[in-house]
């Protein structure tokens, strides 16, 4: 037997009515980086919860062998004591505590029952050095960027003498520089003998750092590939994940572009708290009927801020600029006015800004256009409402038992489709889609692209914001680049390449670039 | 449309039935608790609880808490709270006393003016909460002190009594009785109408849902629920008919319940309230006028508090500076016993009413049994805690992954 730090054998986990995992086996070699891939809802997170004791031993079938010994974890504490630490996609740091306090939260550095602050901060500083974070350990978490917070999480894991580090979508919210730093760190930890399991949708990253990859589909292990020996490519992984070869990751689409629909001119926005800081400077954007326009920008370039400030001044202060629809200036000062003027904005953060997670699909679908369903005295026609939701369920292929399913229990891709249903039912002329495929698996992404194309073919104008350049290149007819709040280029699809976009996205940053690399 | 995940083999009929009941545990549990409490007191008091006169008193004496609970549940669904309602009850009662006995304003006009005062007070609080973004807890805590003071000033720390006979009927009067002996026919007719309307409405709803293919409720549960409701209405009607007939305040309460239940379940406004409580940011970005909805909620709460204040004053035939002390807590407790969530987004008008009835029954039953007020308070505290604990446990159990 080769040296496996972890072996999970025949794991089966059943929820009422559903087998989430069926006879899943996973072997992780000591000192390797092991990637787990699978569509959303395939069971990756469930598997990690089984491993880390979130689902205690006894609530599932199968065996876990860690460091050669069978283990029965009854809680996260058990698994952490054994040296398994999981870092979730949603970071679990306390925002108003310092870095050091967070690192030693639940594991306080004490002497005689009192916290030893010198030791706490000193130890924290050592850990921060190991992860390459140059901040003072007394800095509050809220003052850090997401990438830095991620590093704090890893430092926290190191403080627990981690042997097996599990990272769930670690780079989902990071920009390229932070992602690169994080991946480098994982490699570095590997050299220090720490084994990692990394769950990711970003196949290029898996290609870059993983030794093996295990693919899970529909709650079953499909295969485990050795990255070097099997010459694994992104296409190969995708094939395993979706069970078919995707001829193309982007649906074919011939645009039929018409008149100008929306034009934004001289748009300026300032930061809501630090009011002297200009977030958007003199931005101008236009979109024509049937056109899909992309906005590319690094994290912090102001993409979401631009979109939200346009959509009913939902972000920022001292907003100035004009918005024209079909050549006529329109009032976008509140969200209801923006909607009435035929503009919709589907947020990048479905859970916080997009859905009422405790309510069902029906009521989320009708959420922004209840007026259309209201009859006499403002009463909603519940039957018509459910029928409408049912139609979107079918036409957008939302996978849910019925329209009365609670949206909080759907997978990311299906939640995104509910958000899209909501805005499609509001029937806007211009749709601003902010990261429409974030955290969504490859198969569902393809479906979302198809929906976007369909909307464009109906004559709507689409503005699509995305961090993934291949996606913008694959879907958009024209791409704006945004750098530090300024539009730096307007590039038609035929001329756009990832390199050209990246050049324009980093144009204003050159001077400050070294500061951002930590 | 189900996902391709393999489902467990179809279980037996009783098993599915039990499973469905378990899914409805919140609703079923609340009704069961109500029945258990009624039966317990009926037994413990030797049959006094369900005597016609006691049922009539129960309705009348709890009416103002139930009225307050209707407004409170809406505020709580939106994720806010209102601590000022008790003081507002006192203030409105005081103003009614001053207007009717000192300014000699005809009582119907005084009622209208008092409701307007309630609306203005609600607008005052709503302004600070919705547009100035001060948490409702603080604004209404201030309001609690403010309006208690205002009530004392208006009454100059005196009590006002008596009120005109016609005004008092609003709190303790009955609809005119027909027939002199046996069951009072008007009450029976009203009960019959209520039952028929309920039957017709439910059947129609179910049939429409059926044609749209949206039915999820099993037939047996539907029948059971309906039979139970009709049975309750029937019992109520017979009990009231064998005493003095229908209390006027029950008519007011009935209209409020039906109207607000419909508003919360089906109107655009009600849906916006749930949306705000469920996810404020998402609601705002969906075009819900969140500030206006919040503002209107507090205006509504003010008017409802004023109504409760009028009913209370009429019932006691007394405007007192200390009226309504602790009402806000009873109303809030009723809402939470009725299944609303502290975090907002969840709750129903009927739930709040049942919660209010449970509290009312406990008060009434324990008073009959001669339990001291100190123990009454203790027991009510435990019941509130148990109800919410049950809810939380239930949610965790159903919550799954």
Question: Can you walk through the features of this model?
Answer:
The complex is a heterodimer of chains A (518) and B (401). Chain A has 518 residues and is α/β, with parallel strands linked by helices. Chain A contains 18 helices and 22 strands. The two termini of chain A are 42 Å apart. With 401 residues, chain B is mainly α. Chain B folds into two domains: 31-173 and 249-395, ABC transporter involved in vitamin B12 uptake, BtuC (Orthogonal Bundle); 174-246, no CATH class. Helix content of chain B is 75%, strand content 0%. In chain B, helix 3 packs antiparallel against helix 13 (290-316), helix 3 crosses helix 14 and helix 5 packs antiparallel against helix 6. The longest helix of chain B is centred in the middle third of the chain and has 28 residues, at 185-212. At the A-B interface, strand 2, helix 10, helix 11 and helix 13 of A face helix 8, helix 11 and helix 12 of B.
Quick take:
The complex is a heterodimer of chains A (518) and B (401). Chain A has 518 residues and is an alpha/beta fold.
Topology:
The complex is a heterodimer of chains A (518) and B (401).
Chain A (H helix, E strand, L loop, with lengths): L3 E12 L2 E12 L3 E5 L6 H9 L8 E6 L2 E2 L5 H7 L1 E4 L11 H5 L6 E2 L2 E2 L1 H15 L14 H14 L4 E5 L7 H16 L3 E5 L3 H7 L2 E6 L2 E7 L7 H9 L17 E11 L7 E11 L3 E6 L5 H8 L6 E9 L2 E2 L5 H6 L2 E4 L3 H5 L6 H5 L16 H14 L16 H15 L3 E5 L7 H16 L3 E6 L2 H7 L2 E6 L2 E7 L5 H8 L7 H4 L2
Parallel strand pairs in A: 3-10, 3-11, 6-9, 9-10, 15-20, 15-21, 18-19, 19-20
Antiparallel strand pairs in A: 1-2, 1-4, 4-5, 7-8, 11-12, 13-14, 13-16, 16-17, 21-22
Chain B lengths: L12 H11 L1 H20 L7 H26 L7 H18 L4 H25 L4 H20 L9 H8 L12 H28 L6 H23 L6 H19 L1 H11 L1 H6 L4 H27 L10 H11 L11 H21 L3 H27 L2
Helix pairs in contact in B: 2-15, 3-9, 3-10, 3-11, 3-13, 3-14, 3-15, 4-5, 4-6, 4-13, 5-6, 5-13, 7-13, 8-9, 10-11, 11-13, 14-15, 14-16
